[in-house]
Amino acid sequence: MPSMDEATEASPLIPVGDADRQEPVYSHANDSEWTREGMQTAGLAAIFILLFSVADVFRYFSTLQLLELGVCHEQYTAANPDVPKQAGENTPGDFCGSPGVQQYVADLRGYLVALEALVGLFLTLPYGLLVNRFGERLVAGLSLLGVSLACAWILLVSFSKSALPIWTAVLAPLFQVIGGGSPVLYSVLYSIAAKHIPDSSRSLCYSFFSGAQAVTEIGAVNIAAFFLEKKLEYMPLVLTFPVCIICLLTLFFMRPKKVAKTARGCESGNSDEERKLELGSLLKGAHAVVEICQNPNVLILLAIFPITKLIDTIYAVMLQYIPRRFGLSFATSSRLSSIPSLESFLVLVAIIPLMKHIAETKFHIAFRKVDIYIVRYGFLVMSFSCLIMASSTTLIAFMLGLSAFSFGSGARPVLQSILTDMVDRDKIAVLYTLMAVGDALVSATGSLIIHHSFAIAIGWENLLWLGLPFFIGAACYFYAFVGAGLVRHTALSRKSNLDSDSN
Protein backbone atom coordinates (compact mmCIF):
# COMPACT_ATOMS: atom_id res chain seq x y z
CA MET A 1 0.00 0.00 0.00
CA PRO A 2 1.22 3.55 -0.60
CA SER A 3 2.67 5.48 2.28
CA MET A 4 0.15 8.17 3.22
CA ASP A 5 -0.66 10.25 6.22
CA GLU A 6 -4.32 9.71 5.60
CA ALA A 7 -6.01 6.79 3.81
CA THR A 8 -8.36 7.67 0.99
CA GLU A 9 -10.84 5.83 -1.21
CA ALA A 10 -8.04 5.35 -3.73
CA SER A 11 -7.39 1.80 -2.60
CA PRO A 12 -5.37 0.22 -5.43
CA LEU A 13 -6.18 -2.99 -7.21
CA ILE A 14 -2.41 -3.36 -7.39
CA PRO A 15 -0.93 -1.83 -4.25
CA VAL A 16 1.95 0.60 -4.09
CA GLY A 17 4.12 0.19 -1.07
CA ASP A 18 7.45 -0.74 0.37
CA ALA A 19 9.21 -3.57 -1.36
CA ASP A 20 10.33 -5.08 1.91
CA ARG A 21 8.00 -7.62 3.44
CA GLN A 22 6.31 -5.87 6.33
CA GLU A 23 3.66 -7.30 8.59
CA PRO A 24 0.43 -5.32 8.02
CA VAL A 25 -1.13 -3.41 10.87
CA TYR A 26 -4.77 -4.51 11.12
CA SER A 27 -7.78 -3.44 13.03
CA HIS A 28 -9.83 -6.60 13.61
CA ALA A 29 -12.93 -4.73 14.70
CA ASN A 30 -14.76 -5.65 11.53
CA ASP A 31 -13.52 -9.24 11.29
CA SER A 32 -16.47 -10.58 13.28
CA GLU A 33 -18.99 -7.75 13.50
CA TRP A 34 -21.01 -5.73 11.02
CA THR A 35 -20.87 -1.95 11.12
CA ARG A 36 -23.50 0.48 9.89
CA GLU A 37 -21.17 1.86 7.24
CA GLY A 38 -20.24 -1.67 6.22
CA MET A 39 -23.84 -2.75 5.73
CA GLN A 40 -24.62 0.40 3.74
CA THR A 41 -21.64 0.06 1.39
CA ALA A 42 -22.07 -3.69 0.95
CA GLY A 43 -25.76 -3.14 0.20
CA LEU A 44 -25.00 -0.48 -2.41
CA ALA A 45 -22.38 -2.74 -3.99
CA ALA A 46 -24.97 -5.53 -4.17
CA ILE A 47 -27.50 -3.18 -5.81
CA PHE A 48 -24.89 -2.09 -8.33
CA ILE A 49 -24.00 -5.70 -9.17
CA LEU A 50 -27.68 -6.59 -9.65
CA LEU A 51 -28.31 -3.60 -11.91
CA PHE A 52 -25.25 -4.28 -14.01
CA SER A 53 -26.29 -7.93 -14.28
CA VAL A 54 -29.55 -6.74 -15.87
CA ALA A 55 -27.58 -4.61 -18.34
CA ASP A 56 -25.26 -7.56 -19.04
CA VAL A 57 -28.20 -9.88 -19.82
CA PHE A 58 -29.86 -7.29 -22.06
CA ARG A 59 -26.76 -6.59 -24.11
CA TYR A 60 -25.79 -10.25 -24.24
CA PHE A 61 -29.03 -11.72 -25.63
CA SER A 62 -29.66 -8.78 -27.93
CA THR A 63 -26.11 -8.98 -29.35
CA LEU A 64 -26.31 -12.73 -29.98
CA GLN A 65 -29.59 -12.41 -31.86
CA LEU A 66 -28.46 -9.37 -33.85
CA LEU A 67 -25.29 -11.23 -34.85
CA GLU A 68 -27.28 -14.22 -36.13
CA LEU A 69 -29.74 -12.03 -38.04
CA GLY A 70 -26.90 -9.98 -39.50
CA VAL A 71 -24.99 -13.05 -40.69
CA CYS A 72 -28.17 -14.58 -42.12
CA HIS A 73 -29.06 -11.37 -43.98
CA GLU A 74 -25.52 -10.86 -45.26
CA GLN A 75 -25.08 -14.40 -46.60
CA TYR A 76 -28.60 -14.52 -48.04
CA THR A 77 -28.13 -11.33 -50.03
CA ALA A 78 -24.69 -12.55 -51.17
CA ALA A 79 -26.18 -15.87 -52.34
CA ASN A 80 -29.16 -14.11 -53.99
CA PRO A 81 -27.85 -10.89 -55.55
CA ASP A 82 -31.09 -10.39 -57.52
CA VAL A 83 -33.16 -10.14 -54.33
CA PRO A 84 -33.89 -6.53 -53.31
CA LYS A 85 -32.26 -5.44 -50.06
CA GLN A 86 -35.63 -4.81 -48.44
CA ALA A 87 -36.73 -8.35 -49.23
CA GLY A 88 -33.47 -9.66 -47.85
CA GLU A 89 -34.47 -8.40 -44.43
CA ASN A 90 -36.97 -11.28 -44.17
CA THR A 91 -34.73 -14.24 -44.88
CA PRO A 92 -36.17 -17.76 -44.82
CA GLY A 93 -35.81 -19.60 -41.53
CA ASP A 94 -34.35 -22.67 -43.25
CA PHE A 95 -31.54 -20.57 -44.66
CA CYS A 96 -30.69 -19.10 -41.25
CA GLY A 97 -30.52 -22.60 -39.79
CA SER A 98 -28.18 -23.93 -42.48
CA PRO A 99 -24.79 -25.31 -41.32
CA GLY A 100 -22.83 -22.59 -43.12
CA VAL A 101 -24.68 -19.77 -41.39
CA GLN A 102 -24.63 -21.41 -37.96
CA GLN A 103 -20.92 -22.20 -38.18
CA TYR A 104 -20.14 -18.57 -39.00
CA VAL A 105 -22.41 -17.38 -36.17
CA ALA A 106 -20.70 -19.70 -33.69
CA ASP A 107 -17.26 -18.44 -34.71
CA LEU A 108 -18.31 -14.78 -34.50
CA ARG A 109 -19.78 -15.30 -31.04
CA GLY A 110 -16.55 -16.96 -29.94
CA TYR A 111 -14.45 -14.11 -31.34
CA LEU A 112 -16.69 -11.52 -29.66
CA VAL A 113 -16.44 -13.09 -26.20
CA ALA A 114 -12.73 -13.80 -26.61
CA LEU A 115 -11.92 -10.22 -27.65
CA GLU A 116 -13.87 -8.85 -24.69
CA ALA A 117 -11.97 -11.19 -22.38
CA LEU A 118 -8.62 -10.21 -23.90
CA VAL A 119 -9.38 -6.52 -23.38
CA GLY A 120 -10.04 -7.28 -19.72
CA LEU A 121 -6.93 -9.46 -19.50
CA PHE A 122 -4.54 -6.78 -20.73
CA LEU A 123 -6.19 -3.82 -18.99
CA THR A 124 -7.04 -5.19 -15.55
CA LEU A 125 -3.53 -4.55 -14.20
CA PRO A 126 -3.09 -1.07 -15.72
CA TYR A 127 -6.47 0.07 -14.43
CA GLY A 128 -5.58 -1.46 -11.10
CA LEU A 129 -2.70 0.99 -10.95
CA LEU A 130 -4.95 3.89 -11.95
CA VAL A 131 -7.21 3.13 -8.99
CA ASN A 132 -4.34 4.23 -6.76
CA ARG A 133 -4.32 7.68 -8.32
CA PHE A 134 -7.95 8.33 -9.27
CA GLY A 135 -10.01 6.15 -6.92
CA GLU A 136 -12.22 3.09 -7.27
CA ARG A 137 -15.43 4.89 -8.14
CA LEU A 138 -13.91 6.80 -11.07
CA VAL A 139 -12.45 3.64 -12.60
CA ALA A 140 -15.82 1.88 -12.21
CA GLY A 141 -17.52 4.85 -13.89
CA LEU A 142 -15.09 4.64 -16.82
CA SER A 143 -15.90 0.94 -17.14
CA LEU A 144 -19.60 1.78 -17.43
CA LEU A 145 -18.78 4.31 -20.16
CA GLY A 146 -16.77 1.75 -22.13
CA VAL A 147 -19.57 -0.83 -21.92
CA SER A 148 -22.12 1.77 -23.10
CA LEU A 149 -19.96 2.72 -26.11
CA ALA A 150 -19.60 -0.97 -27.03
CA CYS A 151 -23.39 -1.34 -27.03
CA ALA A 152 -23.72 1.78 -29.19
CA TRP A 153 -21.29 0.30 -31.74
CA ILE A 154 -23.26 -2.93 -32.04
CA LEU A 155 -26.44 -0.93 -32.64
CA LEU A 156 -24.67 1.13 -35.31
CA VAL A 157 -23.45 -1.99 -37.15
CA SER A 158 -26.91 -3.60 -36.92
CA PHE A 159 -28.62 -0.57 -38.44
CA SER A 160 -25.93 -0.10 -41.13
CA LYS A 161 -25.89 -3.51 -42.80
CA SER A 162 -25.19 -2.03 -46.21
CA ALA A 163 -22.29 0.12 -44.99
CA LEU A 164 -20.65 -2.07 -42.35
CA PRO A 165 -20.15 -5.86 -42.61
CA ILE A 166 -21.59 -7.80 -39.69
CA TRP A 167 -18.17 -9.07 -38.57
CA THR A 168 -17.29 -5.50 -37.48
CA ALA A 169 -19.73 -5.93 -34.57
CA VAL A 170 -17.08 -8.21 -33.07
CA LEU A 171 -14.89 -5.12 -32.63
CA ALA A 172 -17.28 -3.69 -30.02
CA PRO A 173 -15.15 -4.83 -27.03
CA LEU A 174 -12.38 -2.50 -28.22
CA PHE A 175 -14.45 0.38 -26.84
CA GLN A 176 -14.06 -1.23 -23.43
CA VAL A 177 -10.45 -0.11 -23.50
CA ILE A 178 -12.10 2.80 -21.69
CA GLY A 179 -12.46 1.43 -18.17
CA GLY A 180 -11.39 -2.15 -18.85
CA GLY A 181 -14.93 -3.56 -19.15
CA SER A 182 -16.71 -6.01 -16.88
CA PRO A 183 -13.61 -7.69 -15.34
CA VAL A 184 -12.33 -4.40 -13.90
CA LEU A 185 -15.83 -3.34 -12.87
CA TYR A 186 -16.61 -6.51 -10.92
CA SER A 187 -13.12 -6.57 -9.42
CA VAL A 188 -13.56 -3.04 -8.05
CA LEU A 189 -17.09 -3.66 -6.73
CA TYR A 190 -16.26 -6.93 -4.98
CA SER A 191 -13.10 -5.36 -3.57
CA ILE A 192 -15.14 -2.53 -2.04
CA ALA A 193 -17.68 -4.95 -0.59
CA ALA A 194 -15.11 -7.43 0.74
CA LYS A 195 -13.50 -4.82 2.99
CA HIS A 196 -16.82 -4.28 4.79
CA ILE A 197 -17.90 -7.91 5.28
CA PRO A 198 -16.82 -9.90 8.38
CA ASP A 199 -14.74 -12.98 7.61
CA SER A 200 -17.23 -15.49 9.02
CA SER A 201 -20.09 -13.97 7.00
CA ARG A 202 -18.30 -13.49 3.70
CA SER A 203 -19.12 -16.82 2.02
CA LEU A 204 -22.81 -16.45 2.89
CA CYS A 205 -22.84 -12.84 1.69
CA TYR A 206 -21.23 -13.82 -1.60
CA SER A 207 -23.76 -16.63 -1.94
CA PHE A 208 -26.59 -14.15 -1.36
CA PHE A 209 -25.00 -11.76 -3.87
CA SER A 210 -24.84 -14.51 -6.49
CA GLY A 211 -28.32 -15.77 -5.60
CA ALA A 212 -29.86 -12.32 -5.91
CA GLN A 213 -27.96 -11.90 -9.16
CA ALA A 214 -29.40 -15.19 -10.44
CA VAL A 215 -33.02 -14.29 -9.66
CA THR A 216 -32.50 -10.84 -11.16
CA GLU A 217 -31.24 -12.45 -14.34
CA ILE A 218 -34.41 -14.55 -14.53
CA GLY A 219 -36.50 -11.41 -14.90
CA ALA A 220 -33.99 -9.84 -17.28
CA VAL A 221 -33.86 -12.95 -19.49
CA ASN A 222 -37.66 -13.10 -19.77
CA ILE A 223 -37.86 -9.41 -20.61
CA ALA A 224 -35.20 -9.87 -23.29
CA ALA A 225 -36.99 -12.97 -24.63
CA PHE A 226 -40.25 -10.98 -24.81
CA PHE A 227 -38.61 -8.36 -27.04
CA LEU A 228 -36.99 -11.05 -29.20
CA GLU A 229 -40.35 -12.75 -29.75
CA LYS A 230 -41.83 -9.39 -30.79
CA LYS A 231 -39.01 -8.97 -33.34
CA LEU A 232 -37.59 -6.04 -31.35
CA GLU A 233 -34.11 -7.48 -31.13
CA TYR A 234 -32.50 -4.08 -30.59
CA MET A 235 -34.66 -3.01 -27.61
CA PRO A 236 -32.76 -4.88 -24.85
CA LEU A 237 -29.57 -3.25 -26.10
CA VAL A 238 -31.20 0.19 -26.02
CA LEU A 239 -32.42 -0.41 -22.45
CA THR A 240 -28.83 -1.05 -21.39
CA PHE A 241 -28.11 2.70 -21.45
CA PRO A 242 -30.63 3.83 -18.76
CA VAL A 243 -29.65 0.87 -16.58
CA CYS A 244 -26.00 1.94 -16.77
CA ILE A 245 -27.01 5.48 -15.78
CA ILE A 246 -28.74 4.12 -12.66
CA CYS A 247 -25.58 2.11 -11.88
CA LEU A 248 -23.61 5.34 -12.10
CA LEU A 249 -25.92 7.03 -9.60
CA THR A 250 -25.57 4.08 -7.22
CA LEU A 251 -21.80 4.33 -7.53
CA PHE A 252 -21.95 7.98 -6.49
CA PHE A 253 -23.32 7.11 -3.03
CA MET A 254 -20.70 4.44 -2.25
CA ARG A 255 -17.98 5.13 0.28
CA PRO A 256 -15.07 2.71 -0.18
CA LYS A 257 -13.48 1.73 3.11
CA LYS A 258 -10.29 3.29 4.35
CA VAL A 259 -7.80 0.46 4.54
CA ALA A 260 -5.06 -0.09 7.05
CA LYS A 261 -1.51 0.83 6.15
CA THR A 262 1.65 -1.14 6.68
CA ALA A 263 3.77 -0.42 9.71
CA ARG A 264 6.40 1.29 7.65
CA GLY A 265 3.77 3.17 5.69
CA CYS A 266 2.41 4.62 8.93
CA GLU A 267 5.82 6.08 9.70
CA SER A 268 6.28 7.67 6.30
CA GLY A 269 4.58 10.91 5.43
CA ASN A 270 6.92 12.35 2.84
CA SER A 271 5.08 13.30 -0.36
CA ASP A 272 8.29 13.04 -2.44
CA GLU A 273 8.70 9.48 -1.27
CA GLU A 274 5.09 8.77 -2.23
CA ARG A 275 5.74 10.04 -5.76
CA LYS A 276 8.75 7.77 -6.05
CA LEU A 277 6.65 4.85 -4.86
CA GLU A 278 3.98 5.65 -7.45
CA LEU A 279 6.59 5.66 -10.23
CA GLY A 280 7.65 2.19 -9.16
CA SER A 281 4.10 0.94 -8.58
CA LEU A 282 4.25 -1.75 -11.24
CA LEU A 283 7.25 -3.41 -9.59
CA LYS A 284 5.61 -3.12 -6.18
CA GLY A 285 2.46 -4.67 -7.55
CA ALA A 286 4.47 -7.55 -8.98
CA HIS A 287 6.10 -8.00 -5.57
CA ALA A 288 2.67 -8.17 -3.90
CA VAL A 289 1.54 -10.79 -6.44
CA VAL A 290 4.62 -12.89 -5.65
CA GLU A 291 3.87 -12.64 -1.91
CA ILE A 292 0.34 -13.91 -2.43
CA CYS A 293 1.44 -16.74 -4.69
CA GLN A 294 4.11 -17.93 -2.25
CA ASN A 295 1.37 -19.87 -0.48
CA PRO A 296 0.96 -23.08 -2.55
CA ASN A 297 -2.65 -23.49 -1.41
CA VAL A 298 -3.55 -20.02 -2.64
CA LEU A 299 -1.78 -20.78 -5.91
CA ILE A 300 -3.76 -24.00 -6.41
CA LEU A 301 -7.09 -22.30 -5.70
CA LEU A 302 -6.20 -19.37 -7.97
CA ALA A 303 -5.43 -21.89 -10.71
CA ILE A 304 -8.87 -23.51 -10.49
CA PHE A 305 -10.91 -20.38 -9.71
CA PRO A 306 -11.14 -19.22 -13.37
CA ILE A 307 -12.78 -22.56 -14.25
CA THR A 308 -15.89 -21.26 -12.46
CA LYS A 309 -16.09 -18.59 -15.17
CA LEU A 310 -16.52 -21.32 -17.79
CA ILE A 311 -20.18 -21.54 -16.79
CA ASP A 312 -20.85 -18.39 -18.83
CA THR A 313 -19.39 -19.98 -21.96
CA ILE A 314 -21.38 -23.17 -21.38
CA TYR A 315 -24.61 -21.16 -21.15
CA ALA A 316 -23.61 -19.15 -24.24
CA VAL A 317 -23.09 -22.17 -26.48
CA MET A 318 -26.27 -23.71 -25.06
CA LEU A 319 -28.31 -20.89 -26.61
CA GLN A 320 -27.17 -22.02 -30.05
CA TYR A 321 -27.03 -25.72 -29.21
CA ILE A 322 -30.71 -26.06 -28.20
CA PRO A 323 -32.14 -24.61 -31.44
CA ARG A 324 -29.73 -26.68 -33.51
CA ARG A 325 -30.19 -29.94 -31.58
CA PHE A 326 -33.88 -29.78 -30.66
CA GLY A 327 -35.32 -27.34 -33.22
CA LEU A 328 -36.51 -24.60 -30.84
CA SER A 329 -36.42 -20.85 -31.50
CA PHE A 330 -33.76 -18.56 -30.03
CA ALA A 331 -36.38 -16.78 -27.88
CA THR A 332 -37.56 -20.11 -26.45
CA SER A 333 -33.99 -21.14 -25.78
CA SER A 334 -33.49 -17.85 -23.97
CA ARG A 335 -36.45 -18.57 -21.71
CA LEU A 336 -35.13 -22.05 -20.97
CA SER A 337 -31.85 -20.50 -19.88
CA SER A 338 -33.71 -18.76 -17.03
CA ILE A 339 -34.46 -22.16 -15.43
CA PRO A 340 -30.88 -22.71 -14.20
CA SER A 341 -30.90 -19.13 -12.88
CA LEU A 342 -33.88 -19.99 -10.68
CA GLU A 343 -32.19 -23.16 -9.48
CA SER A 344 -28.98 -21.25 -8.81
CA PHE A 345 -30.97 -18.79 -6.71
CA LEU A 346 -32.40 -21.63 -4.61
CA VAL A 347 -28.96 -23.21 -4.22
CA LEU A 348 -27.22 -19.99 -3.23
CA VAL A 349 -29.91 -18.47 -1.02
CA ALA A 350 -31.51 -21.54 0.56
CA ILE A 351 -29.59 -24.80 0.12
CA ILE A 352 -26.04 -23.63 0.81
CA PRO A 353 -26.95 -21.52 3.89
CA LEU A 354 -29.00 -24.45 5.25
CA MET A 355 -26.15 -26.90 4.66
CA LYS A 356 -23.68 -24.58 6.36
CA HIS A 357 -26.01 -23.98 9.31
CA ILE A 358 -26.59 -27.70 9.91
CA ALA A 359 -22.92 -28.61 9.47
CA GLU A 360 -21.65 -25.85 11.75
CA THR A 361 -24.28 -25.99 14.51
CA LYS A 362 -25.36 -29.62 14.65
CA PHE A 363 -22.18 -31.39 13.60
CA HIS A 364 -19.77 -28.63 14.74
CA ILE A 365 -17.78 -28.70 11.49
CA ALA A 366 -15.52 -25.68 10.91
CA PHE A 367 -16.98 -23.29 8.37
CA ARG A 368 -13.82 -23.40 6.26
CA LYS A 369 -14.09 -27.18 5.98
CA VAL A 370 -17.73 -26.87 4.91
CA ASP A 371 -16.75 -24.26 2.31
CA ILE A 372 -14.04 -26.40 0.68
CA TYR A 373 -16.44 -29.37 0.50
CA ILE A 374 -19.03 -27.18 -1.25
CA VAL A 375 -16.42 -26.10 -3.79
CA ARG A 376 -14.96 -29.56 -4.34
CA TYR A 377 -18.19 -31.46 -4.90
CA GLY A 378 -19.76 -28.56 -6.75
CA PHE A 379 -17.10 -29.02 -9.43
CA LEU A 380 -17.77 -32.78 -9.49
CA VAL A 381 -21.50 -32.24 -9.96
CA MET A 382 -20.90 -29.84 -12.85
CA SER A 383 -18.52 -32.30 -14.51
CA PHE A 384 -21.05 -35.15 -14.50
CA SER A 385 -23.85 -32.76 -15.53
CA CYS A 386 -21.88 -31.72 -18.62
CA LEU A 387 -21.56 -35.38 -19.59
CA ILE A 388 -25.34 -35.79 -19.27
CA MET A 389 -26.00 -32.71 -21.45
CA ALA A 390 -23.46 -33.82 -24.05
CA SER A 391 -25.01 -37.27 -24.48
CA SER A 392 -28.69 -36.26 -24.26
CA THR A 393 -30.86 -37.15 -27.23
CA THR A 394 -34.06 -35.54 -25.91
CA LEU A 395 -34.81 -32.09 -24.56
CA ILE A 396 -36.06 -33.55 -21.25
CA ALA A 397 -32.79 -35.38 -20.66
CA PHE A 398 -30.83 -32.27 -21.55
CA MET A 399 -32.85 -30.11 -19.13
CA LEU A 400 -32.29 -32.68 -16.37
CA GLY A 401 -28.55 -32.40 -16.94
CA LEU A 402 -28.83 -28.62 -16.99
CA SER A 403 -30.76 -28.66 -13.72
CA ALA A 404 -28.07 -30.79 -12.09
CA PHE A 405 -25.43 -28.44 -13.51
CA SER A 406 -27.01 -25.54 -11.62
CA PHE A 407 -26.41 -27.25 -8.29
CA GLY A 408 -22.70 -26.53 -8.70
CA SER A 409 -23.29 -22.80 -9.00
CA GLY A 410 -22.29 -22.23 -5.38
CA ALA A 411 -18.67 -23.12 -6.11
CA ARG A 412 -17.66 -19.69 -7.39
CA PRO A 413 -18.84 -17.39 -4.55
CA VAL A 414 -17.71 -19.84 -1.88
CA LEU A 415 -14.29 -20.28 -3.49
CA GLN A 416 -14.01 -16.50 -3.79
CA SER A 417 -14.72 -16.22 -0.07
CA ILE A 418 -12.14 -18.91 0.75
CA LEU A 419 -9.43 -17.10 -1.19
CA THR A 420 -10.36 -13.77 0.38
CA ASP A 421 -9.95 -15.25 3.84
CA MET A 422 -6.48 -16.59 2.98
CA VAL A 423 -4.86 -13.20 2.33
CA ASP A 424 -4.34 -10.08 4.42
CA ARG A 425 -6.99 -7.40 4.15
CA ASP A 426 -4.64 -4.93 2.45
CA LYS A 427 -4.02 -7.48 -0.31
CA ILE A 428 -7.67 -8.24 -1.08
CA ALA A 429 -7.71 -5.84 -4.03
CA VAL A 430 -4.57 -7.50 -5.46
CA LEU A 431 -6.16 -10.91 -5.06
CA TYR A 432 -9.30 -9.81 -6.89
CA THR A 433 -7.19 -8.41 -9.70
CA LEU A 434 -5.51 -11.80 -10.08
CA MET A 435 -8.94 -13.42 -10.13
CA ALA A 436 -10.09 -11.01 -12.83
CA VAL A 437 -6.99 -11.74 -14.93
CA GLY A 438 -7.59 -15.48 -14.60
CA ASP A 439 -11.25 -15.04 -15.50
CA ALA A 440 -10.32 -13.06 -18.60
CA LEU A 441 -7.75 -15.63 -19.68
CA VAL A 442 -10.17 -18.55 -19.32
CA SER A 443 -13.00 -16.58 -20.94
CA ALA A 444 -10.83 -15.79 -23.96
CA THR A 445 -9.35 -19.24 -24.51
CA GLY A 446 -12.45 -21.12 -23.35
CA SER A 447 -14.74 -19.12 -25.60
CA LEU A 448 -12.58 -19.68 -28.67
CA ILE A 449 -12.14 -23.40 -28.01
CA ILE A 450 -15.73 -24.21 -27.05
CA HIS A 451 -17.45 -22.09 -29.73
CA HIS A 452 -15.07 -23.28 -32.45
CA SER A 453 -15.53 -26.90 -31.37
CA PHE A 454 -19.27 -26.39 -31.74
CA ALA A 455 -18.78 -24.82 -35.18
CA ILE A 456 -16.75 -27.87 -36.24
CA ALA A 457 -19.33 -30.29 -34.79
CA ILE A 458 -22.11 -28.60 -36.77
CA GLY A 459 -20.47 -29.87 -39.96
CA TRP A 460 -20.44 -33.48 -38.77
CA GLU A 461 -23.37 -35.76 -39.57
CA ASN A 462 -23.57 -37.46 -36.17
CA LEU A 463 -25.68 -35.21 -33.92
CA LEU A 464 -24.06 -36.68 -30.83
CA TRP A 465 -20.91 -34.71 -31.64
CA LEU A 466 -22.86 -31.48 -31.25
CA GLY A 467 -22.29 -32.05 -27.54
CA LEU A 468 -18.51 -31.73 -27.99
CA PRO A 469 -18.40 -28.38 -26.08
CA PHE A 470 -20.01 -30.04 -23.06
CA PHE A 471 -17.47 -32.89 -23.14
CA ILE A 472 -14.73 -30.24 -22.99
CA GLY A 473 -16.52 -28.56 -20.09
CA ALA A 474 -16.76 -31.86 -18.21
CA ALA A 475 -12.98 -32.33 -18.49
CA CYS A 476 -12.30 -28.80 -17.20
CA TYR A 477 -14.60 -29.17 -14.19
CA PHE A 478 -13.05 -32.53 -13.30
CA TYR A 479 -9.62 -30.88 -13.34
CA ALA A 480 -10.98 -28.27 -10.89
CA PHE A 481 -12.40 -31.03 -8.67
CA VAL A 482 -9.00 -32.71 -8.49
CA GLY A 483 -7.29 -29.39 -7.77
CA ALA A 484 -9.68 -28.53 -4.94
CA GLY A 485 -9.00 -31.94 -3.42
CA LEU A 486 -5.32 -31.07 -3.03
CA VAL A 487 -6.08 -28.28 -0.52
CA ARG A 488 -6.76 -29.12 3.11
CA HIS A 489 -9.25 -27.06 5.09
CA THR A 490 -6.66 -26.38 7.80
CA ALA A 491 -4.77 -24.16 5.33
CA LEU A 492 -7.72 -21.90 4.54
CA SER A 493 -7.06 -18.91 6.79
CA ARG A 494 -4.69 -16.01 7.25
CA LYS A 495 -3.61 -17.37 10.62
CA SER A 496 -2.37 -20.63 9.12
CA ASN A 497 -0.51 -18.64 6.48
CA LEU A 498 1.21 -16.54 9.14
CA ASP A 499 2.10 -19.67 11.09
CA SER A 500 3.64 -21.26 8.01
CA ASP A 501 5.62 -18.10 7.32
CA SER A 502 6.99 -18.05 10.86
CA ASN A 503 8.02 -21.66 10.57
Measured between the Cα atoms of the first and last residue, the distance is: 25 Å
Helix proportion of residues, in percent?
over 70%
Tell me the number of helical segments per DSSP (H or I, 4 or more residues long): 21
Fraction of residues in β-strands: under 5%
Q: Which stretches of 5+ consecutive residues score pLDDT under 50?
A: 1-30, 259-269, 498-503
Structure class: mainly alpha
Largest sheet: none
SSE order, one letter for each helix or strand = HHHHHHHHHHHHHHHHHHHHH
- Report the radius of gyration as a whole number of Å: 23 Å
Report the average pLDDT across residues. 79
Count of spatially separate domains: 1
Overall spatial form: globular
CATH class: Mainly Alpha
Describe the structure.
There is one protein chain. With 503 residues, the chain is mostly helical. The chain has one domain (28-261, 279-502): Growth Hormone, Chain: A (Up-down Bundle). It is built from 21 helices and no strands. It has helices at residues 36-79, 85-88, 93-96, 99-134, 136-159, 182-194, 199-229, 235-252, 263-267, 271-279, 281-293, 296-304, 310-326, 330-336, 338-362, 367-391, 395-406, 411-421, 428-458, 468-485, 494-502. The longest helix has 44 residues, at 36-79. Its main location: membrane. Keywords: Membrane, Transmembrane, Transmembrane helix.
